[in-house]
Design brief:
This protein is an all-alpha fold. The protein has 2 domains: about 100 residues, no CATH class; about 55 residues, no CATH class. The chain is built from 6 helices and 2 strands, in the order ααααααββ. Strand 1 and strand 2 form a beta hairpin. Helix 2 packs antiparallel against helix 4 and helix 4 runs antiparallel to helix 5. The protein is elongated.
Length: about 160
């Protein structure tokens, strides 16, 4: 499965159903509007059918993006309801952009107990196992190849 398929699979069935119902509702509304009121200046029938099917697609995609934000914020241990509401109510897709700018990194599984922990943690909050190298002086996480700790200046071994 490709990356897009993996990301799409985190959207709940309810989110996918809502997006489909948005598309179906708008499609049926347009069908009723086009068939109920026909005037001589209306577009030809094939154009009406094309508009009826394609016009609801952007709103359905919007509903899928909102459902994705809800599921993604939940798996990243963020405030998923708050981010979903911000994505919905901040206009012009600015809420969606803000989510993708400020979202937390994915959680990783502790090798000791398997519980979820943030990538910035040096130790597992559940069992205390080391998740990444830490400074021996201040215990902040450090990166491989550093000679000194960036937080306290302590000398790192190796």
């Amino acid at each position: 499965m490709n990356r897009l398929g993996q990301e799409f699979s985190i959207i709940s069935r309810t989110g996918k159903l809502i997006a489909f119902l948005v598309w179906l509702g708008l499609t049926l509304t347009l069908i009723v509007l086009f068939t109920a009121v026909t005037k001589p200046g209306d577009p030809p029938f094939p154009i009406q059918v094309l508009m009826t099917v394609i016009v609801p697609v952007p709103l359905s995609i919007y509903a899928l993006v909102i459902a994705y934000i809800h599921a993604d914020a939940r798996r990243r241990a963020m405030r998923h309801v708050l981010w979903t509401l911000l994505a919905i109510f901040i206009p012009n897709a600015i809420g969606i952009l803000l989510y993708f700018i400020f979202r937390e990194p994915l959680l990783l599984a502790c090798p000791g107990c398997g519980s979820a922990a943030r990538r910035t943690f040096a130790f597992c909050p559940a069992c205390g196992a080391a998740l990444q190298p830490a400074c021996p002086v201040c215990r902040h996480p450090v990166e491989h190849g550093w000679a000194n700790c960036a937080y306290c200046g302590g000398r790192l071994g190796g």
